[in-house]
Amino acid sequence: MRPSRKAPAGCSFEGWFLVSRDIDTKTEGSAFLREKLKKLQDAYLARLPEALATLQKLSSALAADPDAEVVVADLHRAFHSMRGTAATLGLPQISSEGAIGTELMASFKSLTPDQRRQAAAATLHELAACTARIEAAGKAAMQPADPEKD
Amino acid sequence: MRVLVVDDDPLAAEMTAAVLEDAGFEAVQAESGTAALEVLSTDPSLELVVSDMNMPGISGLQCFQALRARGDERPFVLLSGDDPQALRASEPGLDACVRKDFDLESTLGQAIADVLAARRP
Asked: Which CATH number is B11's domain given?
């Protein structure tokens, strides 16, 4: 069964059927593993709002002080972790956005203090857009598949 | 065989542990590199380490280096969202690097099989 998800209003990017990989199509691993994966995917999506709130809090801290190394490192780690964990749990759209956030923070990290101050507003804008797409992808992944589209 | 899974993300740790248990291993979890170093210093029954790379405090790579620095030669498999070949190239002493993705049960299982085969006398 191929998952079929509808993009939430306002979302225009393609590939929504890949928002959540269909665990039933996995040919490897046992029923135990598929069931476990489903539970962990559900748990991940349930805690996503908390993770997004953390990203927003860190973004606000970055806006207040673009040179705060701890904040820069925490934001980079948060997106990087999202990329890896979401990929493992079959949530490729969230993983892709995590990769975008990781790259944004890696670039920002490499800047000098002066460059950071100049780039902060644009980077924060892109991070906010990335976070919004993650939120939309999480909501789409939680919607039940439409059986008529299989 | 008992395997130590090191990951600060509890859901990722649980997924890795489930993959290992499904493959017949007994998985024990540690929430940080520091916790891993502590448990590995006192538990010789743990025969292999599967660690996330990107963790606060001690990274997976630093955990590996600390183990080798104290003479602990247990096989060490690093998991990362980054390119595993680049990571392996940066630290050739690692037994294996595996990308965190949806095919973890096949890629991690194969990596561990290869590591154990290479270590077999």
From this structure: 3.40.50.2300
DSSP strands (E only) in chain A = none
Closest to A13 measured CA to CA, from A5, A24, A2: A5
Torsion, CA B65, CA B71, CA B76, CA B78, rounded to 10: 0
Give the torsion through C-alpha atoms of A15, A17, A22, A26, to 10 deg. Answer: -50
What string of pLDDT tens digits covers the 121 residues of chain B? Answer: 999 999 999 999 999 999 999 989 999 999 999 999 999 999 999 999 999 998 999 999 999 999 999 999 999 999 998 888 888 888 889 999 999 988 888 899 999 999 999 988 7
B6 φ/ψ angles, rounded to the nearest 5 degrees: -115, 115
- Which residues of A fall within a CB distance of 8 Å from B105? 28-29, 33
> Does the beta carbon of B11 lie under 8 angstroms from any beta carbon of chain A?
yes
Q: B105, A33: Cβ pair inside 8 Å?
A: yes
- Domain total of chain B: 1
Q: Between chains, do A89 and B15 touch, taking CB under 8 Å as contact? A: yes
In the DSSP assignment, the letter for residue B102 is T
Q: Which of A87, A82, A88 is nearest to A104 (CA)?
A: A82
CATH 1.10.3470 fits A17-143, yes or no: no
Q: Which domain holds residue B36?
A: 2-119
